[in-house]
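Weekly puzzle thread! Below is a chain. First person to post its structure in token form gets bragging rights.
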Amino acid sequence: MNMKQISEIAIQYGIKPKYIRKAELIHLIQRNEGNFDCFATAYQGVCDQEKCLWRQDCLKQAVKKSH
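Winning reply:
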């Protein structure tokens, strides 16, 4: 998901997305959704949140962080 799309979601939750990095913004959205702010933390590639909106980007980012 690109930053424009993420920003649009953030705005729906009353979050002002300006000057916030992607991962931080997604963490804020996750907390506002009532979920764990776990984006990009699946370092072993293990995640049980099959229906998570962020899952695809999350797993990619987690792999990047682990290297």
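Puzzle host: Confirmed. Bonus trivia for everyone else. The CA atoms of residues 46 and 59 lie 8 Å apart.
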